[in-house]
Structures are given as structure tokens and as C-alpha cells.
Amino acid sequence: MITLTLVVLLFALAVTAGIVYHSANSPAFGTDRDIDIFIDENTTFGSFIEKLETDARIKNVNFFRKLSTVMKFDTTKMKTGRYVVSPSMSYVSAIRVFRNGYQTPVRITFNNIRLKEDFAQRIGEQLMLNPKSLLKNLSNVRTCEQVGLDTATILTLFIPDTYELYWNVSEDKFFERMLREYKRFWNKERLEKAKNIPLSPVEVSILASIVEEETAIVTDYPLIAGLYINRLKLNMPLQADPTVKFAAGDFSLKRILFSHLESDSPYNTYKNKGLPPGPIRIPSVAAIEAVLDYTRHDYIYMVAKDDFSGSTSFSESLNEHNRKANKYREALNRRGIR
């Protein structure tokens, strides 16, 4: 009798274990696509479960809770990061991912950025980094010195591209990664080209930032770069309107007035010879390459074409330039641009 009872009990336990095993290894989510689950330092187990219910449509939340306890998932210490759950993921697999901190990297991209504030905000939108803290570091002398730059040139560290990082990367690790990418970008070939101009990598990026602000027509980049390099070699002021706009803090200026040219800002390249102390935007790779492979010519003057096509007209002589500049000013006046 006892033997029969034991057999029945063992059979019942085996059936139960089989059911639990099958349930634990069955698909846990009702979604038809991969779902991102972000866990930051403020995420509680309760809010985490809510994300699983709302976003990933977990099928049996109570079973997930009980299995989490069995698998020793410490729900009091949620591991920050970006996690991806898929339609085929089982309860066991999901718990292992969250318990062990098996993150999926994020792909971050940044381009078309002018100011430190813009950069900090863009990165903060893609990583767990705090934009205010990141901005503070971008203006911190010691942080900048650690990567061989200063507070004026720090934005030259960041080469626009797409990078894979963990969403919860620390600021220190973020800067370390960007420094590695910077050194990888500035390889022997590019360093040699810069040396032959001659400009340092930072100076190349500063000039590239000006070139990129001058026009939206990428094919004009090498010509404009060549013009500015001619001026540098002649010890002429760059007289770059974009730097005046940067000094004025207004990139929307359609017309540079004499009052703008009186600014005492070190970024006013009408008053100060040479390159400004830092970039006026994070230059694109295309703009950097345009400086490194600038077009050799004798142009030292340029003005926007009066057809407002966005193209640039170049001149070797001041007389020719003044004639073109007058036509452009007349076109501005006709359009009522003051």
C-alpha cells in the first residue's frame, strides 16, 4: 500500500515537474517582434514587470515572478541596460538575460551638431548618460586634458559615425571609446596628409567645421578648403562668415553686417588671423577629408552665387571678387534680406 502511494506520489511529482519544465521553456511573450526593455537606476521590479506586461505582452506574469525566485533573480538589484526579448524567448531564457545582465548593445549616431549642448542632448537621447553631467564634463578642463584636448577643442574628439555601445555605458567609458575611435580615424595616412598641409588633426577639424558651415554642397568642400588654406599660407585673415555667426550665437543670420564684424570674440576671423580656438560644429568625415584632400588652386576670395543656388563663386583677384560680391548684395536687397 505504501509502495503504491509512493509510486503515485512520484508519478504526480514527475508530471508536475514536466509541466513546470515545459511551461518554463515555452515562449513567454505574446509579441510578434523583438522588444527593447530598458532598465535604468530608477527601475523597480514592479515597473520592470509593468514593462514586460505592456511592451512585451508577457503571457503569465505570476509564473514569471515565481520562476524568478526559484532561479535566484535578485529583483531588489535590477541590472541597468538595454535588453531585447524576442517572440521565441522562454521564461527561463528571459530570466537569465535579466539576472545575468546580458545586454544587447545600442547603435548610436551623431551628426549635424554645432554646440556642446546639442551633442550632450543627442547622446543623452541614445544612452543612459545624463545630458547635464555630460555637458559639464565637456567643459571640464581636467576631462578634456585627459584626452589631449581643451574645452574649446573637445568637440574635435567626436568623429560622426555609427557606434555600438552598451546603453548603460559610464561617462568615463564613453570618453575612452570615443578616444579609441578618434585614434583609429587619425591613422598614419591621414596624419601624413595633415602634416603636409601643414595642420594638426585638431586644426584640420577646426577648418573642416568652417568649410562645412560655408555650404551645403559637398562637392564645393575641397575648393573652399583650398581657399582657406591659401589664406592661411598668405597670413591673411580667414574672414569666414560662419565664424562670425558662431561668435554672435546666431546661425540663422542671412546677412553679415559691419556691427557683427566688430565683435571682439576670438571666433571673429575678420579681426583675428589664423584659425579660431575651436570648431564651430562637429565636422563630418566628408568635410575633414575635403580639408585633407583640398583642391590646389589660386583662389583667395569667394562669395555665394547671386542665384541663391547654394553654390559658391571663387575669385583670384579682389576686383573680380568685389564685382561678384556687389551682385550678391544686390540680389539680397531685391529679396528684402537685411
Précis, in short:
The chain is mainly α and 338 residues long. The protein has helices spanning 2-24, 45-54, 61-70, 91-100, 116-126, 131-138, 141-146, 171-185, 188-196, 201-214, 221-233, 241-248, 258-261, 285-292, 318-334, and strands spanning 35-39, 81-85, 106-109, 162-165, 301-304, 312-315.
Protein model, in words:
The strands form three sheets. A two-stranded antiparallel sheet has the order 1-2. The protein has a two-stranded antiparallel sheet with strand order 3-4. Strand 5 and strand 6 (312-315) form a beta hairpin. The protein is elongated, with a radius of gyration of 30 Å. It is mainly alpha-helical. Mean pLDDT is 89; it is low at 14-18. Helices cover 49% and strands 8% of the residues. The chain has three domains: 25-100, Endolytic murein transglycosylase (Dna Ligase, domain 1, 2-Layer Sandwich), CATH 3.30.1490; 106-185, no CATH class; 188-334, no CATH class. The chain contains 15 helices and six strands.
Count of alpha and pi helical runs: 15
Count of all domains: 3
| H/E series | HEHHEHEHHHEHHHHHHHEEH
* Principal-axis shape: elongated
Structural class: mainly alpha
In the sheet with the most strands, the strands line up as 1-2
Rg, Å, rounded: 30 Å
Work out the strand percent: 5-15%
Beta strand count: 6
pLDDT averaged over residues: 89
The poorly predicted ranges are 14-18
The main sheet comes to:
2 strands, antiparallel
Measured distance between first and last alpha carbons: 104 Å
Helix content: 40-55%
